Amino acid sequence: MNWQQFLVDFLTWVIFLYSIVLLLCYIFIAFYSIGETRKYIRKSSFTDYSIMAVSEHTPSISILAPAYNEGATIIENVRSLLNIHYNNMEVIVLNDGSKDDSMQKLMDAYQLVEVPYVFTAHIATKPVRAIYRSSNPVYKKLLVVDKQNGGKADALNVGINIASNDILVCIDVDCILEQDAMQKLIKPFLEEKEKRVIATGGVVRIANSCEVKDGKIIRVHLPEEFIPRVQTLEYIRAFLLGRMAWSRLNGLLLISGAFGAFDREIAIKAGGYDHNTVGEDMELVVRMRRYMEEKKIPYKVAYIPDPLCWTEAPASFKILGRQRNRWTRGTIETLKLHRKMFFNPSYGVLGMISYPYWFFFEFLAPLIEFAGFVAFVVFAVLGLMDWSFFFALLVFILSFGFLYSVFAILMEVLTYNQYRKRKEIFNLMLTAFLEPFIFHPFVVWSAVRGNIDLLRKKKSWGEMTRQGFAGKKKN
Amino acid sequence: MQPGLVFNYITLYLLDAVVDPLQLLAVTLFFVCIIAGVVLFILFYLIRRTGRSMRRRSLREQYSNCISELAVCETDEELQSFLQQPDTQRITRLLEHEAFSRRVIITELLKTVKNMSGNAATNVCWFYEQANLQHDSLLRLQNGAWHVKARAIQELSGLRQNKYITKIYRHTNNANELVRNEARTAVVKLTGFEGLRFLDVATYPLTEWQQLCLLYELSLHSNRSFEGVQRWLQSSNSSVTEFALRLVEVYHLHACFSTVTSCLKHAAKPVRKKALAALKEIYDPAINEILVAMFPAEDADVQILILQMLKEFGTEEEQAFLLQQLLHEQQEIKVAAARAVYYTQPDAESLLRQRVQTDTYPWNVLLVQLKQEVLL
Amino acid sequence: MKILVAEDEPIMLKTIALRLRKDGYDVITVADGREAIEQIEEQNPDLIITDIMMPYSSGLEIVGKVKASGQRNVPVIVLSAMGQENVVVEAFNLGADDYITKPFSPNELSMRVKRLAKTA
């Protein structure tokens, strides 16, 4: 046997194994998530969360809301944060050197006055210009920090320094939260005695086309535009199947930057957000977990599947591309920073399962897929393609993907069922059917571009231009 | 996470050697069958659910009218005439025949007693028995899965079915955490402080959540008895000790002072923290000395709690100690110490100005901040 | 005499309204904070009963608004499940005239309304 033949055989088997393991992972995730979801739903069926709002003994929390050029909606958004049903909380709005009139608007709407406020710089950050409180006692939970621009991670670090409570809740200021969001998000911190809960992650759902009034979702609709609609499906799959399974394994690596709670002490000890990466939300969770593993303290990262946080998803390929490009870079940077854990048994589930999964199936998958596509074109052009086999494999893969999506839709229907109309559910299925042809190749391409950009050391944030909910009211 | 599918075109070419296309097609067909099944199931489920949720809404609407009328009845005559009303009669007839409607009304009744007390609550509980609904709850307590049991316990206790307390008490040490929690909360709801006797034999830890629920239930009871607290403070189950410390804190149980003080030496940090919180409420000057003595060996978070206590109760005795902490390497401790000095020491401002560099951070800001704080 | 009741739980709202109508008051019911603020301006009630945890605006915000406006003499009763000391103190600081914690007795509420109605 010559070496060329050996190489081809070797590659065949590696790829074959890779594909099989990937498919098995999906199947495993789908089945493994069911038990966890069922348990959570059953538990919620009799839990009276309002005790979290009426008890004297709930832990105090600090909500950190970084804002950069959010002038269009900031007043309304801060108002809805202040109206969250939770007693012991402070809301810290971090104005990250906005260039628009956000700061002035806040000053006027909430009658802010500058106050002397000492805090400890546990984590080094860009300088704070001033700290404000409201002179109106109705808004006494509010604290506004004006700081020099330094990016989201930097703003959150300032928030970590300034926060006076043990639990931090990081949210995107433009998200719409349900009013009982904190009751549900904080509860996991109270449920463990043997392990330390270092973070809780919540679900982010897509608010495009939903009816919004005064910072509250009135009625949920499936997005009318195709791009946000596919993302709705993606989010359902990721949050209802993926994260649920990972949380059951206690191997969750990612908590959405848009909605998550952290143990302040551990966040500080782990060093806070890293402002050198574009994926600061994932990186922090990985670093906090790594810290706990290294200190050998039993810990848990909890996950709450209730739809409590709604956000506007990118509606154009351009902005979506930037977002996915950034996610890819964030993932790679995080994996690179923590490569020490790769198949390292001293990091437990984190090192042996979570990290390798992310490496092989989140980082490598789009690359392999892209390489495969190039190979396909080459083979097709050279006339080397076995078309009958091609179509057999194509329908196989497509049907598997569709099955996975339909299963996710089933879980959504059986659990939270946000989309009330039957038409919307079937629309979602149609979307699942179209996804691999229209949407998926673009996502892969964006991921590949992310890799290329990273190699070129590009570090821009990929600005998300927001239209603001106020402008999209439906009457 | 970006779950997507790998269209593996390399695989495609290479796998030719490994897999037969016909086999692939067979598997595909299998997938398609499952998809069809799932889609049909979703369709069926959605149709059924729409019907159910519409029915539930209409039932709720009817019941809420009925329950509010029931809640405002003041005399027995009013209650009897409420029962004789055609609407009520129609509803009770339906309750006899249909389990679904019974479930809906129990939920509504439970919600009502959660929010109302006095006559209104008594009427609601009376109606629950009158309509023989406790029979449903009992059946579910007996035969249900864990979440059904937990729910049944809530119903029985929420609607004051004291006669079934032994059936509920049996579950206070249930292996399932959630059933156990509900049972414990339920006995306290029904019998108040007396119900806490399960703490004597509690082997599982009480989570913070459980403690919150118990304290909330206790807050609704007026006849208090703290007979077991001393015992629980010394429990070998440290979460029981924590809970007892919270009782001391909430109800200002000065009699427990010496036992609480000994909890400051407890091995578990949460216990020590809660002991400090409790001591704040049953303060005695004798404690200052102990606080100063335990300070050096503690973690920063406990140290800050100690300084916060001295901010309330510090005397000139502690002056040297507090001033010494101004030089501590951790800023948070320095600041807490300065605050304690400012609030408790005579002529504190000049005392602080002598000790610190007033033109550097944090002192330049802190002195202004403290001045404003005191004014508020 | 016109009383506005703001409460988001329908059974509670109906019961309170029924109880107060029995006492001969005119009752306006609203189910959320925003509607409450609108109706207070429009209808000029003589007394306000409000929950704290409601959609859109919290009851405390309503208290603050009423007491800072031309209607500051209108008595406001806060009716809430939140019994924490800091919340009660805050409510009174903002100008609330009475504070009732849930679970509450409708009869007691009626008595308190009567007492406040006399002074109003």
UniProtKB/TrEMBL annotation, chain A:
<dbReference type="Pfam" id="PF13641">
    <property type="entry name" value="Glyco_tranf_2_3"/>
</dbReference>
<dbReference type="GO" id="GO:0016757">
    <property type="term" value="F:glycosyltransferase activity"/>
</dbReference>
<feature type="transmembrane region" description="Helical">
    <location>
        <begin position="12"/>
        <end position="34"/>
    </location>
</feature>
<keyword id="KW-0812">Transmembrane</keyword>
<keyword id="KW-0472">Membrane</keyword>
<protein>
    <submittedName>
        <fullName>Glycosyltransferase family 2 protein</fullName>
    </submittedName>
</protein>
<feature type="transmembrane region" description="Helical">
    <location>
        <begin position="389"/>
        <end position="413"/>
    </location>
</feature>
<feature type="transmembrane region" description="Helical">
    <location>
        <begin position="357"/>
        <end position="383"/>
    </location>
</feature>
<feature type="transmembrane region" description="Helical">
    <location>
        <begin position="425"/>
        <end position="448"/>
    </location>
</feature>
<comment type="similarity">
    <text>Belongs to the glycosyltransferase 2 family.</text>
</comment>
<keyword id="KW-0328">Glycosyltransferase</keyword>
<dbReference type="InterPro" id="IPR029044">
    <property type="entry name" value="Nucleotide-diphossugar_trans"/>
</dbReference>
<keyword id="KW-0808">Transferase</keyword>
<keyword id="KW-1133">Transmembrane helix</keyword>
UniProtKB/TrEMBL annotation, chain B:
<keyword id="KW-1133">Transmembrane helix</keyword>
<keyword id="KW-0472">Membrane</keyword>
<protein>
    <recommendedName>
        <fullName>HEAT repeat domain-containing protein</fullName>
    </recommendedName>
</protein>
<dbReference type="InterPro" id="IPR016024">
    <property type="entry name" value="ARM-type_fold"/>
</dbReference>
<dbReference type="Pfam" id="PF13646">
    <property type="entry name" value="HEAT_2"/>
</dbReference>
<dbReference type="InterPro" id="IPR011989">
    <property type="entry name" value="ARM-like"/>
</dbReference>
<keyword id="KW-0812">Transmembrane</keyword>
<feature type="transmembrane region" description="Helical">
    <location>
        <begin position="22"/>
        <end position="47"/>
    </location>
</feature>
UniProtKB/TrEMBL annotation, chain C:
<keyword id="KW-0597">Phosphoprotein</keyword>
<keyword id="KW-0804">Transcription</keyword>
<protein>
    <submittedName>
        <fullName>Response regulator transcription factor</fullName>
    </submittedName>
</protein>
<dbReference type="GO" id="GO:0006355">
    <property type="term" value="P:regulation of DNA-templated transcription"/>
</dbReference>
<dbReference type="GO" id="GO:0000156">
    <property type="term" value="F:phosphorelay response regulator activity"/>
</dbReference>
<dbReference type="Pfam" id="PF00072">
    <property type="entry name" value="Response_reg"/>
</dbReference>
<dbReference type="InterPro" id="IPR001789">
    <property type="entry name" value="Sig_transdc_resp-reg_receiver"/>
</dbReference>
<dbReference type="GO" id="GO:0000976">
    <property type="term" value="F:transcription cis-regulatory region binding"/>
</dbReference>
<dbReference type="GO" id="GO:0005829">
    <property type="term" value="C:cytosol"/>
</dbReference>
<dbReference type="InterPro" id="IPR011006">
    <property type="entry name" value="CheY-like_superfamily"/>
</dbReference>
<keyword id="KW-0805">Transcription regulation</keyword>
<feature type="modified residue" description="4-aspartylphosphate">
    <location>
        <position position="51"/>
    </location>
</feature>
<keyword id="KW-0902">Two-component regulatory system</keyword>
<keyword id="KW-0238">DNA-binding</keyword>
<dbReference type="GO" id="GO:0032993">
    <property type="term" value="C:protein-DNA complex"/>
</dbReference>
